[in-house]
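How it folds
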Amino acid sequence: MVPTSCTRCNNSRALIIRPKNHQKLCKPCFISLFETEIHNTITANSIFRPGERIAIGASGGKDSTVLASVLKTLNERHNYGLHLLLLSIDEGIKGYRDDSLETVKRNAIQYDMPLHIVGYDELYGWTMDQVVSQIGKKGNCTYCGVFRRQALDRGAARLGIKHVVTGHNADDVAETVMMNLLRGDLPRLSRATSIVTASAASDIKRSKPLKYAYEKEIVLYAHHKGLDYFSTECIYSPEAFRGSARTLIKNLERVRPSAILDVVKSGEDMAKLVPPEVSGSGTSTADAKDVAVVLDGDAEGEGGCGSSNGRASGGEMAVMEQELRNEETSDGKQTQNDDNEIDFTLQGQRHDRHEPTPAASTLSKAKRLPKQQLQRCGRCGYLSSQPVCKACMLLEGLNKNRPKTQISVSVEEEDNSPTLTRRMEGLTTNSHETNVT
């Protein structure tokens, strides 16, 4: 079989078929093209300013690791003039986050970047293990998502940093669009599709340089660059609502590889229809350069982990990583194709379309989306659409149901305890005075 040449350089043998467009590329061309596309996203949206201090939200997963590697490369190659450091959140999940933080510590050494770690325990007095033991696995991602955003903002504020970048990719954004459509939440949809979101509560903005990068291409880049990352799925995430949206997106991708970017683009177009006063942004979302204001950390979707966990539905990315490792040990004569051919037939492709009746049109015009008023939380000062932010409300519920601490004392200790003796004497005296009265 004649080897296939790279469609970009026409010199080297193609080793990779891009998931995005099935373009056949050699290893150097794929890496160069991937980095160039990220650079174009950064420059087209004016994400950074020269001399800016940037905190990279690092979890040790593939997305944040690739983001750190690419930003370091592009910063040196194109002279962005950025000062980069790693900011990690310790949710307190034993057997998962403690292991991934070890990867982050190695990344800090490998990329020569300072590392700062902020824990849920020190910020909220709860770890996610404790939260799950209190409420169970259903709905725990809501707690974690709200807590994580505030933790990132507070960690950045401690360091005097006003810009945090996260590793959310095209798959994550498409999932968030789908989740908000399923929930009918257009205001949140408009904020979630913005590549830059502002947090007026702490003057910290966040951006997603990997917004248009496919998750599978991120895995390919990490593999061919030999990056060190953690790939175990969060032990609490399978119950998340995001998993349902993720499965739907993956099924669409198998049938139509461009479906992910199509969903993202559709989300951006629908976001233009949401009035700025409803979406919470000060300007229209029609321009990608506009900055959307985020309320209570809902940019990534209330019930999901975003891309910070290096996870995938059903372990699909883990399977892909294993296949890449197997390819590495083989003779390498065949082109790496990250998509297996799957006979997946869509059911119910024909949909009857009905024109809305005049009455229905009148109702839709009369229906108005609620206007959200921005204010600071009365307890912690975080930006919220309510007098008390989501994090404080969640903490209030947790603290009310937290079992009271009990101290057990043996019978011998009770008998010999001077404190107990004094209390009993006091009770006896009070009882005697009452009787006299």
